[in-house]
Structure formats: structure tokens, C-alpha cells
Amino acid sequence: MPSNAAAWLTAAKANPFEVKSEPYTSASENDIVIKSGAVAINPFDWMIQHMGDALFPLPYPSILGFDVAGEVVEVGSSGSRFTIGDRVRGATKRPRVLFRHTLSSYPIWYGRFRAIYP
Predict the structure, then answer these.
(1) Which of 2, 57, 66, 67 places its Cα 20 to 30 Å from the Cα of 105?
(2) For the CA atoms of 78, 81, 82, 88, what is the dihedral angle to 10 degrees?
(3) Does the structural domain 5-116 have CATH classification 3.90.180.10?
(4) What is the pTM of this model?
(5) Which of 112, 18, 106 is nearest to 62 (CA)?
(6) How far, CA to CA in Å, does 2 sit from each of 21, 33, 39, 69, 76?
(7) In Å, how far are 35, 55, 104, 113 from 5, measured between CA atoms?
């Protein structure tokens, strides 16, 4: 199992993020797991970090991030149009109980908000 790290927002308005380990999570039925190659901090991430719970309440610690590109390393049991080794890019849009998103080494993706790139 690969080692996984993430940029954690440890409390409301915490700055900077704390980079520390995160357990690797396998893909569930409709998910894929990717190895991050590039991530982006978009304006929504910035607003969450700087406005804290004024925007909407989060459980802490949380991992922010919505935009990522990388390589598929695991595909969920229900199959997918993606295969291991595909290079993909996109955004996560799944409601997360733990608010686990893309600012990690191995984020989990769900749904249609991803595409293969050359």
C-alpha cells in the first residue's frame, strides 16, 4: 500500500496548511484512486481557508482541493470507463463525510467530473 500525504486544514482559518500523513483509502464501488501529478488551489479553496466557518462549517481537520490531474492507480469494483495507467484530470464534486479532497497524494474521485488527457 502506498504512503499517502495530504495538506490538512487543521482548524478554521489555519494558515498555512499542515502537510502530514493520511491513510491510503482504496476505491469503493464507483470510485477511482489517482496518484496526483498536479493540483490547483482555486478561489473556493482560498475562501474556505481564509473565511473559516463563515462560508460553511467544516469538520476539522479537513483536506481541501477540488482540481487535480494524475494517473489512475485503482478502479472501483463496478468498473469504470477508466483503466489503471490512464492520465486523468478533473474536479471532485462528491459530498464527503470527511471532506477528503484533492490536496493529497492519492485522492479518491467519484462521478463524471473527470476526463482522460494525452
Answers:
(1) 57
(2) -130
(3) yes
(4) 0.84
(5) 18
(6) 11, 12, 19, 18, 17
(7) 11, 26, 6, 23
